[in-house]
Design brief:
Strand content: 15-25%
CATH superfamily of the largest domain: FAD/NAD(P)-binding domain
Largest sheet: 7 strands, mixed
Number of strands: 21
Distance between the termini: 57 Å
Number of domains: 3
Length: 562
């Protein structure tokens, strides 16, 4: 066993995890930053290629309370007002800090350039350049990590469980993926920053390590989850032709800036069939676009890959190049010429509004256990405002790192418990006793298809009930122990992933079954319309192998725009 000890353990090295590690270290703590992939190159941040919301007032007069009002409006009444306010009020500090670190925000007339994104009442979003914001952010944070000796960076470690002793988090255990050795990570405080759950879906915009690991870790440790039914789908995710090295959600700025005609297999524009004609402006809202594409595919008028066509053939080539010259060149390397061909698009899982329930210090109900970034639930309510994703990673990452450091400095020791660690590692250490070897690869594929087909953007009670029944059957088929001769065996790793993914999928489905209305990203075709009696958040907990769902009144926002 590899044994390591630190003050603050950060699990996940995307934008939120890296920011948390930097904040904890500059507050005087030793930090171990752990990721199952390469540090700073996994998760969602590095893949984000769009804009970052912040009320700078650089492009036009603005105030964080205006940003908050738009965030609450997008959240359809379910935002945690304290978390939403923290996000909006602290955004400028983090954006300015990143600017001082030379991230390269685009500038115009001596100030940071800001653009208008959907859902905002004014130009509020900064960017590095279209399609490069996330990589630039990740590169800048990695450079800061390299300057801090107190941060130890360890990749290729899969954390399998949080170690809890006397009701408190005291570290974690896991596997070193390159050697198969077990790892014990003692810590005075622990931060979960593992991102969202888009890997649960067959079509998604996230990394392969976005399977909901953090939610499952937190749940088994005794923390609560909240708002798990709200999975955000991006309506025009790229399907075909094959495109390498570019974000599958890249078509939004094209659509808003130049227009893009959504066509079915018969070459027809179809938006007007679903209540919102585009009238040549091509700014169909995401919910209507998603619904329209799904219904055209159901009617047999979809594209060959199962979506719709997005066409820019009506836009002169000179206008395409003037607006997106470098991007046009990158598309050409992928053999895509927008002046001559359409691309196929469809709704894809993009973001998760739910997650670990925390307070304004990013602390869960388990002492010493924190969360950051997309792993946190509550700030975005039923629907995330465009541009808030990276802002959330910065703000919540910094707050979690600061809070975890303060907690660690107040403790004389981690309280590590060898017996508790051994219990947490028991499934891995007993893997050779597994009676049978399920086809874990097939189960993964089936799980993603099941979630796409029955727990997608448009749901019914019958579909959700069928999904839950099948998930429970898959859980039974998976068995209580992983197979595989060694931890490095892919069957063992798939089993560990499936253990988390099946649990998290059940959380999504159970919450979706209970919410008998349509609100934000949760749309029930058998319960259309948003109902005031469902101004409730749903909290999920895990006790004695049972998943419990509790409805609680939503806190109301105390602030109003000036």
């Amino acid at each position: 066993m590899i044994q390591l000890e630190t003050d603050v353990l950060v699990i996940g090295a995307g934008g939120a995890g890296m920011y948390a590690a930097i904040a904890a270290a500059r507050d005087g703590c030793r930090v171990q930053l752990i990721d199952r992939s390469l540090i700073g190159r996994g998760g969602a941040t590095v893949m984000a290629q769009m804009t970052v919301s912040v009320a700078l007032g650089a492009q036009c007069p603005d105030h964080w309370e205006h940003h908050l009002a738009d965030t609450l409006q997008a959240g359809r009444g379910l935002c945690d007002p304290l978390l939403a306010q923290l996000l909006c009020e602290n955004a400028e500090l983090r954006i300015r800090e990143m600017d001082a670190w030379k991230v390269g925000w685009a500038r115009e007339d001596g100030h940071l350039k800001q653009v208008h994104a959907p859902g905002h009442d004014r130009a509020r979003c900064v960017y590095v350049d279209f399609l490069n914001t996330g990589p630039a952010v990740s590169r800048t944070l990695r450079a800061q990590l390299n300057r801090i000796d107190a941060i130890r960076r360890i990749g290729d470690v899969l954390v399998t469980d949080i170690v809890v002793s006397s009701g408190e988090a005291v570290g974690a255990v896991g596997l070193h993926l390159l050697t198969g050795e077990t790892v014990a990570l003692q810590a005075k405080s622990v931060i979960i920053a593992t991102g969202g759950l888009t890997r649960l879906y067959r079509r998604n915009s996230g990394s392969l390590n976005m399977g909901g690991d953090g939610y499952a870790l937190a749940l088994r440790a005794g923390a609560e989850l909240v708002d798990m039914e709200f999975v955000q789908f991006f309506p025009i995710g790229h399907l075909a032709p094959r495109m390498i090295g570019m974000d599958p959600i890249m078509w939004d700025p094209f659509r808003y800036k130049l227009g893009g005609r959504l066509l079915n297999a018969e070459g027809e524009e179809f938006a007007d069939r679903y209540g919102q004609a585009e009238s040549g402006n091509y700014v169909l809202t995401r919910d209507v676009a998603t619904y329209a594409i799904y219904k055209e595919v159901e009617a047999g008028r979809g594209s060959p890959a199962g979506g719709a066509y997005l066409s820019f053939a009506h836009v002169p080539d000179a206008d395409l190049r003037k607006a997106f010259g470098p991007v046009i060149d990158r598309l050409a390397k992928n053999n895509i010429d927008l002046s001559k061909m359409s691309v196929e698009v469809a709704p894809i899982a993009h973001y998760h509004m739910g997650g670990v329930r925390v307070n304004a210090a990013m602390e869960t109900r388990v002492p010493n256990l924190y969360a950051a970034g997309e792993a946190v639930g509550g700030a975005n309510g039923a629907n995330r405002l465009s541009g808030n994703g990276i802002t959330e990673a910065f703000v919540f990452g910094e707050r979690a790192g600061t809070s975890a450091a303060a907690r660690a400095k107040a403790r004389a020791a981690s309280g590590w418990n060898e017996a508790a660690a051994a219990r947490a590692l028991e499934p891995v250490n007993r893997r050779a006793q597994a009676a049978a070897t399920p086809n874990t690869a097939a189960l993964l594929v089936e799980l993603q298809a099941l979630m796409d087909d029955k727990v997608g953007p448009f749901r019914t009670g019958d579909k959700l009930d069928a999904a839950l029944q099948r998930l429970l059957q898959m859980q039974q088929a998976l068995g209580p122990l992983p197979a595989g001769a060694t931890p490095y065996d892919m069957v063992c790793l798939d089993w560990l992933d499936l253990r988390n993914m099946l649990l998290v999928a059940q959380c999504v489905v159970r919450a979706a079954i209970e919410r008998k209305e349509s609100r934000g990203a949760h749309q029930r075709e058998d319960f259309p319309g948003m109902l005031p009696e469902w101004n409730l958040n749903q909290r999920l907990s895990w006790c004695d192998g049972e998943l419990n769902v509790e409805c609680v009144p939503t806190a109301r926002a105390a602030t109003t725009a000036p």
